[in-house]
Amino acid sequence: MAVDFTQVLAEIGGFGAFQIWLIVLLCIPNFLSAYYMFAQPFMVLDEPHHCIRALWVQNYGPNLTAEEKLNLSVPRTEAGDFESCLVYAPPPEGWSLDDIYQYGLNGTQACKEGWEYPEKKPLSLVNEFNLVCHRKHERETAQSVYMAGLLFGAMIFGPLCDRIGRRPTILILLLLYAVFGIGTAFVTDFYFYMVLRFAVATVVSGYTFSNVTLSTEWVSASKRTHAVVICQSCFSVGQMALAGLAFGVRNWRLLQIVGTSPVLLLFFYWWVLPESARWLLTQGRVEEAKALIQKAASMNKRSVSSETLDQLAPEKKGPKGNALDLFRHPQLRKLTLILFCVWFVDSLSYYGLGLNVGGFGLDIYLTQLIFGAVEVPARLSSIFILQKFGRRKSQMGMLILGGLMCIIIIFIPAKYPTVTTTLAVIGKFATSAAFTISYVYSAELFPTIVRQTGMGLVAIFSRIAGIITPLVILLEEYHTAIPMAIYGTFPVLVGILSVMLPETKGKTLKDTIDDLEPKPTKGPQNPEPDSTNTEAVSAQEKGTVGHFSTTYF
Hints:
The chain is mainly alpha-helical and 553 residues long. 61% of the residues lie in helices and 2% in strands. The protein has 22 helices and 4 strands. A two-stranded antiparallel sheet has the order 1-4. Strands 2-3 form a two-stranded antiparallel ribbon.
C-alpha cells in the first residue's frame, strides 16, 4: 500500500528544526524584497527647483552677475519665490536692458534649458533626470510599471516553478535579484530605469510565489498559516529596515547598491536550499525525495521507518477545474465576483497608504518606520482575529476599519500631522490584516478542484489594483482629498458586500463545486482540526495526496 506525503510529514515532524531552518532561509530574501517594493518614494522626494536662466539674457549684458541674469530670466510667485516651471519669453526685438527694467516682461514660456536645484541635495531620481514640471507624473508611472511587473512575474514564474522545481526557480530568481537590482544603480536614462524596475518586479513576484510554495509543502497542515504569516512579517520588518537605510543613504544610486547587493551574500543557497520532496514525488523522482525526507527527519531528531520509505510512490495531482468553472455555477460565481472586489480593494488601500508615506505631514522616514512596525502585529494578530471572530466578520471588519481611517483623514487639517499619521497607522494595520485574512478566507471558499485557479484569478485583480494605485495619486492635482476618498470608500463598500460571503470557520473545506450546494445533515457537523489551512486539509480528510501550489501576495 502506497504512503502519501502527509503520512510522511506526521512521522518526521511537520514543524521541527528542519522546517524552521527552511523558513529562515526563505525569509531572508523576503526581508530584502521590501526594499524593491517601497524604496522608490525615497528617491523621488520633492525639492525646490527653478528653470535655468534663459539664453537670450546673454545678449543683454554679458557683465551681469548670475543673480541678475536669474532675476531677468525667471518670474517670481506671489510669495516671492522663483517660479518652478516658467521663464520669461524673449523681449520684443530692439529692446534694450533699460527697456526691460523700465517696462518689465510679462510673457512666459516653459523651461527649455533645464532646471536648477538651489538646495544642492544628494543625487536623486528627481534632480538627476529632472522629474519635475511636465515630467513629474513619470514618478507615479514608474511605480505603476513596477506593479505591472508583479502581475507579469506571477504569470511567468508560477508555471516555471511547477515545471523545473521550487529550488531551481528560487536560485534563478536570487541571481536575477542581483543582476536587475544592482544594474538599476547604473542606468543613464529614466526610461531604462523603468525597464529594469519592471524586470525586478517580475523577480519579486516570482520569489513571493515560489518561497511560500516551498515552505508550505514542507510544513504540516496545522502550521501552514503560521508559515505564511511569518514570511509576511519578515517583509514588514524589511520595511522598517528600509526607513533606516534610506535615512542614512540619500544618494539614490548608492542607496540602490546598498539595498540590493546583500542578495549576493546568499550564494551559499546553492548548497543548502532543499527541493520540495512533495514536488519530487509528483515528478517520479522518488529516490531524491527519500534522501531529503531522511535529512529532514535527522534534523528534527526523528526517524523514518524503512517500511515508510519503501512504500513511497510517485504522487498524482488531483483533478482540476478551469477558470470557466468559476462562473458556471451560480453560488461559485457570486463568491468569485465578491472575492475579485475584496482582493482589488485590499491591494488598492494597502499600496495607497504604503506609497504615500510622505503625504501625512510627519517625517517620511519616521512614517515608513512606523508603517513597517505596525504590519508585524497586524499580520500576526490576524491568526487570533480569524479564530476569535470568524472569517466573514474579520474580513468585513478590517476592510471597513481601514477604509474609514482613510475617509476620516480627509477631514483632518494639515496642521495636525500627528493625528493624520495616527489614523494612517490604524488604516495600515487594518489593510495589512485584511490582506492576510483574504488569503486564508479565499483559500477556504474555493473548492479544491478550482482552488489554485481561483487564487490565481483573484491575485490578478490584486495586481491590477496595484497598477492603478500610483495613478490614483495623480488625481490630487484636481483635489487633494480625491485619492484618500477612493482609498477609503471602496474598502468600506466592499466590506459591506462581504456580508454575502459564507462563513467557513470550523467547516469542512469543499472539494467539488457540487459541495457548495447545502445538503441536509443527520447530525452535527464535525469541525476540522484547523480550519485555517488550505488545499492539503481536504486531501488529508480523504486520505489522498496533499499536493498543491500556492499563490502568495
